[in-house]
Amino acid sequence: MIGLDNALIRFGSRTVIEELSFSVPVGRSLAILGPNGRGKTTALRAMLGFQPLDGGKRIAPAVVGYVPQAGSSNQRLRAVDVAVMGCAARIGLFGQPGPADLETARSALQRAGAARFAESFYDRLSGGERQLVLLARALATGSPALVLDEPAAALDLANQQRLLDLLDGLRQARDKAIVFTTHDPNHALAAADDALLLMSEGPALHGPVAETITPEHLERLYGVPMRLVELSSPGGAPHRAVLPAFAGARAA
Amino acid sequence: MGGRGMVRRVVSGCAVALLMAGGAGAQQIDIKDQAGRDVKLDGPARRVVTIPMPMASGVIALDGGTGRLVGMNPLSLTAIREGILGKIFPAAAKITDSVTGTNFMPNVEALAAANPDLVIQWGGRGNDIVDPITNAGLNALLIQYGTEELTRQYMTMVATAIGRPERIGPLVEWRDRVEKEIETKTAKLPASDRPSVLYLGNALSSITASGDKGNYNAFYIDMVGARNASADLSGTVTINKEQIAQWNPDFILLNAFEPQLDVSWVYNDPILSLTKAAQNHRVYKVPLGGYRWDPPNQESPLSWMWLADLVHPELFDFDLRAEMKSAYETLYNYQLSDADIDGILWMDKQGSAAGYDRFKAK
Amino acid sequence: MTSDSTAAAETTTVRGLTRPVTIYGGLAALLLVSVLVSLCAGRFSVGPERALAILWQGVLHPGLVPSAIDERVVLLVRAPRVLLAAVAGAGLAVAGTGLQGVFRNPLVSPDILGISQGAAFGGALAITLGIWGLPLIGMVFLLGLVALVSVGFLARINGRTETVTVILAGLVVGSMFTALVSLLQFIADPESSLPAIVFWLMGSFSTATWQRVLIAAPGLLAGTALLWALRFRLNLLSLDEAEARSLGVRTERERWLVFAVVATIVGSQVAVSGIISWIGIVIPHAARLLVGHDHRVLLPSAVLLGAAFMVVIDTLARSASSAEIPLGVITALVGAPVFALLLRRHYRERKEQ
Predict the structure, then answer these.
(1) Segment A146-155 mean pLDDT
(2) What is the mean pLDDT of residues B188-214?
(3) Which 3-state string (H, E, C) describes B16-64?
(4) Integer distance in angstroms from the first to the last C-alpha of chain A?
């Protein structure tokens, strides 16, 4: 279980987060949406324990599987070496990864769809591939919570698809509490059970995706008219997508 | 005819300068120093600062007292405090040493406070150590280190500058006489008859030795019929004990600058104690008299005699104690006691060294 | 899974990098050869067979005091010096690696961060006050740590810090301690303390004796061993603050541990051989060019490379000419071209990929 309970965060005189409460149990996936500067990142950091709270509580397990937007190590490490870092908490201060840890790392890479470049150097991989390795690292921690910071933001469409499929797969395995921030509501539609909309005015909106990812709520959130579109896909259920109507109702 | 003629020329030259100045009014003194600069004094210098280390005792010796000296090098002061000069002239130990650092860099404030009318400084070592003096409007007399010729010249200049030209004549004559006496016996010595002598300018923190060029120690090592063990070095450099073992010198001379250094440093060392010098007990710390006997100073002939007696006992038999007594009478008007002499020669630490018996009191 | 990315993945696999074991073997061999050659080399002529025979005897009968001059030279002059150089080289290389990891900055080293200067000040202060022996070592260590703390404080390593800020902080701290040492020189007794301090500032192994080895070895070896044990942890400490903490790393505490270890290593080294620059910054880089960034492989490589390099340098310093050449001169003359070659090779490899 991961979340915040009545959290209050102030930066100087500015109140960024007020009375924010939500929790994600194991087996559910939550997408956090909001325009930039509204506190998405702050809420994420607070959940991870990096942002001290001026009020309220943080609910989280001891180690959280964190997937940053971009990994800091632009270093010549193999992907499997990056992934095995996830086992750090188990290895201890003076320990070295053993065969069991490497096994954990490899299966995490497998699960993240990164097994085929396990031996490649991390700094030679593409942005999308690196993201998968970071996901593997987070999985390797064995934490019941998985937190991703705008996971699809820097990816091209193909890689976005790949990542969303992965996230959805993880969601359907129902063995983790997943939280991810995004600025694209379609990501929530693709991979989340619930959504948290951090409104500029008024309390945040929290609920299942079907109830929260609606044009009205999204318009209120982003200040841009939104349209819900239904697309038929070959041999399957209709696909739903939310589009910003930049050119007004004409484009939708 | 060599030295004696030169001495006469130098002394008479100074006398002429004085007379001419006398003709022109106040006893103005004009000297061309060893950097080719013209030094003009309105009269004999009354307040002298000496930055080169041997010159403090040099001025005291030439002047017969401490009245003219108002500032000196810190290492001149330590020599006075540790050696016999502090006993002969107690007032000398109270003269300030803050006028310069040990690296010869003048401290202008302290210099100005001492209000000298003459500052003696090294020439040929760059303008950085001279400019502060001249910029402060003070008179600088630059002298050069290295050879016996230069030493005699600058000592003469200093004697002239302080208005005691009559003092320098006998001193130069003495140096010349002793040098000749030694050279007649050693000039023709072949290399095979010259033992190797290693002089260590530093020993305790790092070990240093010097090559032949511009090296006064090398000059008198050669003069007394030996050869410089470290001749192949360029300038003064750091060496290690392996190198000393490789040279395997016949004699080792330790500097008089490090008061905590004595011959036991060699005998207690596992490597150095196996050198020929140590095995034959030919390790000596250079004496500290009115000044340290390593560099050129007013007592140099004593150091030459000391070394000659040690290096070639079969050729030389100077009565060092008598010579010292006579020299100190002339230089400082002081009667050396036997205890004084023993102290100067480090008799307590190296009395059992080879050849030191002849330096003992009868 | 497009064919593009598969192809891309294939070209990024390990290429041109030999397995770590081969690298270790090569470096270890290099170290061994350097040590043996160094023990046979020196101003005093001892033939190689004789030198090795003496060594062998020394190893077999460690308690026996050697009596002949060549035995003494090999066992009492060269052996402790070579050993000290090797251990100091390893320690400095490892300290540099650790610092570069923790500061997430490839441009730091003990001397750039002012730690060596702080340690030197500790020693100079002790000398001026007439303190010797173990308390002197203590002061050396303590002031090295103070320097490190000052840099950490100035550069505020808790948040994201700019490379430039850290280096500037190191410059400031180093300069301050250098100035303090100059001040000490000014007031020091010109006959004993002053030359001792001056000599202290110049790095040199010429004063190496078995006694000094015993003084420095514990700190150097313990420090190196601790950093060796922390090699996986250094991978983690090299990450962003947020990432590291999310993985369960207690970043503040563990960084301090690395600092304390680095200060111990540098303190021990400065205490017996003065300020030695260069090794701490360049050996980690050279090792990285050989084996990559994974500290599990990097650290052991840095240890071996640092030890071998220092032994080679010191051998040249003491035997190339009658005069002892200052270490700093040779590290630059020998190290710079070697490093340049490594850099070129690395960038050529990158271009090919």
Answers:
(1) 88
(2) 94
(3) HHHHHHHHHCCCCEEEECCCCCEEEECCCCCCEEECCCCHHHHHHHHHC
(4) 39
Topology (CATH level 3) of domain C21-352:
ABC transporter involved in vitamin B12 uptake, BtuC (1.10.3470)
In A112-231, which residue ranges form alpha helices assigned H by DSSP?
127-140, 157-173, 185-191, 209-212, 215-222
Residues of C in contact with A89 (CB under 8 A): 247-248
Amino acid type, C218: P
Interface residues from chain A to C (CB-CB < 8 Å): 45, 48-50, 62-66, 68, 71-73, 75-78, 81, 85-86, 88-89, 91, 93-97, 116-117, 119-121, 124-126, 128-129, 137, 141, 158, 162
Cβ burial, residue A205 (10 Å; 0-12/13-18/19+): middle
- Inter-axis angle of helices B300-311 and B320-332, to 10 degrees? 170
8 Å CB contact between C94 and C224: yes
The answer to whether the CB of A200 falls within 8 A of the CB of A190 is: no
Using one digit for the tens of pLDDT, what is the confidence trace for B309-321? 999 999 999 999 9
Taking the model in full, what pTM does it have?
Answer: 0.84
CB distance C247–A63 less than 8 Å? yes
Please tell me what DSSP assigns to residue B267.
Answer: H
Residue B291 sits at the vertex; the CA angle it makes with B285 and B295, to the nearest 5 degrees, is 70
* Annotated domain spans of chain B: 27-166, 186-359
DSSP class of residue B286 equals P
Q: Which fold has domain B27-166?
A: Rossmann fold (3.40.50)
Is pLDDT of C53 > 60?
Answer: yes
Q: Domain B186-359 belongs to what topology? A: Rossmann fold (3.40.50)
Q: Dump pLDDT digits (tens) for B99-110.
A: 998 889 999 999
Give the residue carrying structure tokens 């280096």: C167
CB of C204 within 8 A of CB of C195?
no
- pLDDT, tens digit, 9 for 90 and up, residues C3-19: 444 433 333 334 444 56
Residue C79 scores a pLDDT above 90: yes
